[in-house]
Design a protein that fits this description.
With about 450 residues, the chain is of the alpha+beta class. It folds into 2 domains: about 400 residues, Serine Threonine Protein Phosphatase 5, Tetratricopeptide repeat; about 35 residues. The chain contains 16 helices and 11 strands. The strands form 3 sheets. Strands 1, 2, 7, 8 and 11 form a 5-stranded mixed β-sheet that branches. A hairpin with a 2-residue loop joins strand 5 and strand 6. The radius of gyration is 24 Å and the shape is globular. The two termini are about 30 Å apart.
Length: about 450
Amino acid sequence: MRTTAVRIATACAAAVLLTVSGCGPDPTVMKTAKALVARVDPQPTYNDSARFLQVTYLAPHDRDYVMWSMEYASLCLMAGNYDAAKAELLQCYDDIQKRQDVEKERAAALSNEATKIFKGEPFERALVCTYLGMLHYVDGDYNNARIFCARADMEDATTEDDMAAFRHDFGLVHYWLGRAFLKLNQPDNARVAFTKASEHVVRKNEEAETASTRKSQAAARTKRIRLEQESYKLATTGKTPVPGAVDMSNCMPAAELPAEQPGAIGENPVLKVAESPEQFFTVDYQKDVNLICLIETGVGPIKYLVGENGYMDAIMRAPYEERKVVVYLNGHKVGQAISLVDMFHQADTRGMSEKDRVQLTKGVTQSVLSRMPYIGDIASYWDVRADWRYWRLMPGEVHVFAAKVKPGLYTLNLQCLDSNDCLLPRYGLTRYYIPVTEDAESVILIHTKPEADNTYAPPSNK
């Protein structure tokens, strides 16, 4: 059963590409669309898509380079190619900081904003720097990890007075900053960073949005259970029963998730796990951690144009179902991951920038002129559209599970929950041979998606 998130993400990618290309679904458009839905595609081709983007869009190094660099790096991260992602993000960040084109800037100030060199929104640049901080951390370069995390914090720190409360609320970067400070033997700085990582300021309309999401997901859960039951009945009692068919209708509450999954191996391997968020964000707890699972869920916010002739851009939350994650190791439930950042929250608290004010002025001016005698027809052709470009493979949220675990090789299983703390059976995700050693910590980056694990068990030989 193809999920709503997959359908909408595919439609959005195709619509954007058709708008840009102005043509039908030729091979280039289809390959690009395939790459841009990799975060929700049950059968992604990470490496092939990354190579395609590299040759087709990165090589020209044109005004859209940073946008495609972000997409390419996302594909590399999802494929586990951390060295390639790090190298590309360093070049991306260098372009953001140094690349200039005065003529394009002038043209964009008077016409279509997308004619200038794309450098991303503040929250997009913050995530670029956060990834670089994390990747330097994984490589053991803790000072550069600290530097890039500090830069990420500054990139996201809006200067708008009405958003002052949200200036330093990028929790993910503060977590990695705290980890870097621990490695640099600066526990006091680490304590400050972890405290910031734990804080959350409620934005306008957030509570109403949460209530609406819970209501819609509750209705979707009821419908999903009914359809899954009907599908399972058809698969097992029809004229041609499906061998190994599995009933996926068990959307149990989180409280009913078993302490051990079928086939659990040995004893629970966790030596120390936080019993509360308050304990999790302490120096004493974090200094003992040797397994860090960074879990990306959903798809990042969608940018679209609004206003007469699209003179302003707006942000909406992409649809995705998974909002919480429960972690199992070797079949033993070891805890729930803690949410560190919601990218829609970051986008929605940016405030009105100087760029937005310029676009508003252009839009109003164009609207007024287009209604005036004699010059109205000419003014109507004035292209004042805002910048439509954005990072389409950005995650929706990032969660972290961190604990002290016995050395060994582990099977990691994630069980995703909706906003009502109910299981999403088709979002189960398993990764094998996760190493934890005696003298080093393991950092695992993983992203959830529907249908990532096998829906059907293999046929029995009996």
